[in-house]
Amino acid sequence: MEALKALGYEISPIEGGFYGEKRRGGVLYQVFYSEAGDVRLRRLRFLKEEAKPLNLAGVAGEWAARYQVEENFFAVADPQDLPSLVLAFERLDLGGETP
Question: At residue 99, does pLDDT exceed 50?
């Protein structure tokens, strides 16, 4: 956990493990780790937001939308492997470009 804190993650205990989170620009990185070694790495990239006034069924209101991409990686890993795994996931770009 200390290694993830050094990478800028805020760590919180959860039942059976811990959760880490880091925000950088329009990207949210999350790490879920269980005592059994189950890992879930999640990345949310916020692409754009839109908002505009909208009259819907005669009621004036505001319409809003947030477009995002969610990416996940699941594995079983030892705790000492987490820092390198997390760094590799942060750099991962399977499409060759960031949408």
Answer: no
